[in-house]
Amino acid sequence: MHWTLLLIAAALEIVWAAGLKYTDGFTRLWPSLGVGAAMAASMALLALAARGLPIGTAYAVWTGIGAVGTAIAGIFLFNESAAPARLACIALIVTGVLGLKFLGK
């Protein structure tokens, strides 16, 4: 259950991080409210997940999934670079997250 909460928290991190682009520096009301809500929910779910997971693992997985997901969202939503070196670096983050999930507690 804790891993499920963590995955939902990470998905919400992707939503709020990518959503920052739509807030235009928090000058647009509805995108800003959506980002704030996703941010609050993401943090709350991270806190709940951390009840049953080591905080170092939970935080690293949360930020790793958020970073990878946001980078991928940037490629698809904002035409950011998909250069091979960038994709290789994203793959390294994924490798680290998987290592924490399957080799750690």
SSE topology:
Blueprint: H1 2-23, H2 29-49, H3 55-78, H4 84-103
Helix pairs in contact: 1-2, 1-3, 3-4
Description of the molecule:
The radius of gyration is 14 Å and the shape is flat. It is mostly helical and 105 residues long. The chain starts with a helix and ends with a helix. It contains four helices and no strands. The mean pLDDT is 96.
Helical proportion?
over 70%
Low-confidence stretches: none
Distance between the termini: 14 Å
**Global Rg:** 14 Å
**SS element count, helices:** 4
H and E string: HHHH
Task: Output mean pLDDT.
Answer: 96
The main sheet comes to: none
Distinctive features:
single chain, 105 residues, mainly alpha, 4 helices, 83% helix
Summarize the model shown.
The chain is mainly alpha-helical and 105 residues long. Helix content is 83%, strand content 0%.
